[in-house]
Amino acid sequence: MKRLALVILASCSGDIAPPWQLAHERIIAVRATPPHIPAGATSTLDVLVGHVGSGLEVVIPGPADTTVVSPTGLTSNLVGATFTAPGETQLDQIRGDLGLGPSDPVPIEVEVVADTFEALKTIYVGDSSDNPTLDGLLVNGVPPPTDTNALITVPANVDVPLFVDADDDVDNVNWLTSCGTMNDFDIHDAFLHVNPSDPQTGQLAVVLRDESAGVVWQFWSVVAQ
Amino acid sequence: MRLARCAAALRARFVVVLVIVVAGRIASAQPAGSDAAGSDVAPEPIVTTGRVIDKLGKPIRGAIVTVEGSDVTTKTDRTGRFVIKAPLDGELTVEKSGFELQLAIVTGRALDDILLLGSEDLQETIEVHGEPPVPTAGAAELDRQDLQRVPGTGGDVVRTLTVMPGVVNLQLPIGYSGVVIRGSSPQDSQILVDDFEIPVLFHNIAFRAILPAESIQTLDYIPGGFDVAYGRASSGIVALTTREGDDKRSEQAEVSVIDGGLLAQGKVGNDTNYMVGFRRSTIDLILPYVIPPSVDLSLTTVPSYYDGQFRIDHRLNAHWNLTLSDVGTIDTFELYTSKDTTANTQRYYDRTAFDRLTAAAHYHDGPWTASLALSAILPQFKFDLGAFQHIDVVQPAITPRAEITRTGDSFSGLTNIELRAGAEAQIQRSDVDIAFPQMMVEGEGMQGFNPKDTSTLFKGNFWQPDLAQWTSFAANIDPRIRFQAGLRIDEFTRNHDTAVQPRGKLEISITPTVTARLIAGAYRRPPEYQSESLYPNLQAERSTQAIAGVEYKPIDGARLQLSTYYTDRSDLITYDAHGVLGNSGRGTTEGAELLGTYHVGPWFAWLAYSYSHSVRVDYPGAPERLFSYDQPHSLNAAASWQHGKWTLGGRFQLYSGLPYTPILGGILNSDTNTYTPINGVVNSARAPIHHELDLRVDYTAHYGPVALTYFLDVQNVYLDQSVVTYFYSYDYTQQAAFKSIPIIPSIGVRGVL
C-alpha cells in the first residue's frame, strides 16, 4: 500500500505502454489445443503475438521455438507446435517423481519463443478438457462478427461498452486495443474510449484464460467514426 | 558450531569493552595526578561536578552553570552533568530556558543534584537532540520555534529527522518507520514514544508524522551506540516524549491544506497537568476534486487519517510523579482501480491503526531514582489487494518495565557513580490471517506480480513473550574522563534465542571545549518484520557497532562534531542459495558524519554531512553487494533568520540516489498472464543524485489574546524533478523514471489562545 500511495503522490515520466496496448512487441498468449490431454494424445500450440506496425499475428511455433522445461525427460515429445503425451506407464512414473496422486494430471511446462520474447505454457496430461469459449460477446451492445480480423466500427469520443460472459474472480479477461484508450481492461465488462487524439484505426482483441490453463482469443480490426 | 561462533563473537565484544575501560584508566593517569596536586592548595578553585535535574528527576541538559561573580561558565550534558572549576564554598547559578534560576553552593568535588523547577515559558519549548556519535552526550538542540523554522519539513517533527546526519534521505519516507539510519534497513531502527515502541511513524497520505509537533516535548535521535535500556534494534533509535501540559492553560489550533488540529493544555488543581491533542487530515476533502474524472479510479473511502494524543502528569508527593499518556492513529484508504465498485479484483483497501497507552511512575529521592511503567498497545493492520490477497493482523501487547538507578559521589577512587538496573517483559499475541506472496527480503530483486499468488498462507494466532534485563555502571575515573559499561540480555522466547549484548562508552573532555567519545556494543533485532514472525526458526539479526567522535564547542550556541563508525552485521535474515529463509547474511557499514550548528541571536544554522558505505553478502559464496539503502553522500544545510514578526528560512539538500537492481527483461507465464522479471545484478545500478532548495516564511500577528502565525513552506522551489527510482512496464521491456514532485507548497495558519 505504501507503494500505491507513492504512485499517487509522486509523478512518473517516460512512455510506458499500458498492458492493454496492442501496438507493442510481445507475446500476448500461448494456447494449447486442447490444454488437457489423455495419455498418448496430442496437443497443438499456437501463439498470439503483438507488433507495433503490423498488428496481431497468430504464430505456429517451429521446432526451434519450443522446449519442454519440465519434466526434462519429455523433451522429445515436443516437436515444434505439437506435443505428444507419453503413455500411461511413463505417466505413472512421472507422477511418482513429482509426488502426484495416481489420477492427477501431470503438468508439462513448455517454453515458447517468438521473435526475442519468451513465454511459458503448461499442458496437462492425464485428463481431458477443452479451451473455453467466448460467450455473450458484445461490442457496443451488439455481438461482433466471428471472423478473425473482421472490421468493426465504433463511435468516436464516447464510452463503447465491451462485454464477455466471465467470472472475474475465476477467469482472467484482457481487453486490448491499438485504437483508443481501454478502461477496465482486465475485467469482463470493459469500455473503450477513442479520443480525437487517439489513433482512429487499429485492432481490438479479447483474451480469456480459465483456471484450467485454457485460453481463447478473438480479434477484430476497428475503426472509430 | 553456532555455539562456538557465538562464544567467539561474545569474547570479541567483551575485549572491546575491556579495551575501552583500560584506555580510560590510562588516559586518566595524568589528569588525576594534576588534580591531586591542585587540591593541596586550598585558595585555588577546585574542579567540581554535579548534575541538574527536573522535578521528575530527569536530567536537564543545556543548562548554563556559571560561577557567581566570574565569567567561568559551562553547560550540562545530556545526562545533566557538568564539570566546572569553582572556589570551595563559592556560589553557582544554574539557568535554563523554561526553568526558574537556581543557586548552588560548591561544597566539594561532587555536588548534590540541583533541581530546576519549570516556568510558564516551558509551554513553547521543544528540544530535538541529535547525537551522531554518542547517545548520551553531545546533543544538538533546537527549541520549538527553531524546529518549526526548518524549511522543507512543513513544521513536521519527524521530517526534521531528514536533516540529521546518518539518516538516509529520499524524497519520500522509507518503510513503516520512515527512517533508515546509517545505510541499514527501516526495520533495523526503532521508533519509541514515551519509551515504548510504536509500529508506524507517519501517515499513509501526505507522509505526516503521526504526532504533531505541538504534542511532542523532545525528540532524541540516536543513530547508533545506544544505551542498554534500549533494545530490539540493530541500528538506531528515535525516541519521542509526549509533551507535559503547562501550568498555564492554553488552546491552539492549526489548519493547512494537509490537516488540521487542536491542542489544549493546562493545570488542574495544584499537582496535575494535562495535554490533549487531536488532528484530522484535510487533504481527503480536497483529493476527490483534484483527481481527473477520466482516471480509472473509484475512491470509495477517500484516504484519510486521524491521530490523537493525551498526557496527564500528577505530582503525588515530593518523591513520586505519575504520568499517563496515550498516542493513537487511524489511517484508512479504499479504492478501486475501476469505475466499477463491484469489481473485487480491482479493489485495494488499507487500514492501519494503533493505540498505545502508557502509565508510568517516577520516583526520586536523593541518590535513588526509579521508574515503573506499564504500557499496552493495540495495533491493527488490514490490507486487501484484489480478490485473493490480504493481510489482517491484530497484535495486542502489554509491556511492564522497571528501572532503578543509584547514584553516589565516590567509591574506590571513582566519582559521580551511577549504577542502574532494569527489566521489561513484552508479551504480545498475534492474530494473523494472511494470504500473500512470499515475503521479499532486503535487496531481493523485483518479483512478478501475480494477483492470485498466496504462497504465504497462515491463519491462526501465537504468543511472543520476550524478556529483557539490563544493567550499567558509570563513573568518572577523573573529572574529565567518564566511562559506562553495561550489559543487556534479551530473551526472544518464540525463537529460543538469548541475546547477550555488552555495551560500553568512554568520554574524555580533552579541553573545556573539546570532548572525545568512544562507544562499542552489541545489538539485536528480533525477527518480527513483515511475516518473519511466521518462521520460529529465525534468529535475531546481530550488529556490533564501534563509534568514535569528537565534539567542539567554540562559543555558546555553536557546536561542531565529527564522528566515524563501523558496524558489523551478521545473522541477517535473507534467502540462502536454495531459497530457504534463514540467517545467512552478513554485512558491514562504515562511515563518517559531520554536524555543525549555530544558534546565536536571530540566526539559526545547521550543516550536516554524512558519508556511508554499506555492503552485504547474502549467504556464503554469494557476491558482495550494496545494501538497498546505501547512500554514500548526504548534505543538509539549513539557515533561518528571525526579525520582528517575520521568520525566513531555507534549506539545501544534496544526496546520492539509492541503488536498485536493473531488470533485463521478462518471461510471460501464459497461464497466469503474469510476467517474471529477469533481474540483473542486485543493486548494481544507482538512481541519480538529488538536490533541492526549500524555503519557508512565517508571519505572526496578534489579535487581542490570539496569536496567529501564517506560514508558507515550499519544497523544491527551483523545480528539480529528480529521479527517485525507476519502474518498469508490466512486461519489463520498458523502463521509466519515477520522479519526485517538482514543487510542494504547504500553506496554513496556527492560532494560540
Helix-strand blueprint:
The complex is a heterodimer of chains A (225) and B (753).
Chain A: H1 2-9, E1 11-12, E2 26-33, E3 36-37, E4 42-50, E5 57-59, E6 66-70, E7 78-79, E8 82-84, H2 88-98, E9 106-114, E10 117-125, E11 138-139, E12 151-154, E13 159-163, E14 172-177, E15 181-183, E16 189-193, E17 201-209, E18 215-224
Parallel strand pairs in A: 3-10, 12-18
Antiparallel strand pairs in A: 2-4, 4-5, 4-8, 6-9, 7-8, 9-10, 11-13, 13-16, 14-17, 15-16, 17-18
Chain B: H1 2-39, E1 46-53, E2 64-67, E3 73-75, E4 81-86, E5 91-95, E6 102-105, E7 114-115, E8 127-130, H2 144-149, H3 157-160, E9 190-193, E10 196-197, E11 216-222, E12 237-242, E13 250-256, E14 259-268, E15 272-281, H4 283-290, E16 298-315, E17 320-336, E18 347-365, E19 368-385, E20 389-394, E21 397-411, E22 414-436, E23 456-478, E24 481-492, E25 497-511, E26 514-525, E27 541-552, E28 558-575, E29 581-600, E30 603-617, E31 625-626, E32 633-643, E33 646-655, E34 659-660, E35 663-669, E36 674-679, E37 685-686, E38 690-703, E39 706-715, E40 723-728, E41 735-739, E42 744-752
Parallel strand pairs in B: 1-7, 8-11, 9-12
Antiparallel strand pairs in B: 1-4, 2-3, 2-5, 5-6, 9-10, 11-12, 13-14, 13-42, 14-15, 15-16, 16-17, 17-18, 18-19, 19-20, 19-21, 20-22, 21-22, 22-23, 23-24, 24-25, 25-26, 26-27, 27-28, 28-29, 29-30, 30-31, 30-32, 32-33, 33-38, 34-37, 35-36, 38-39, 39-42, 40-41
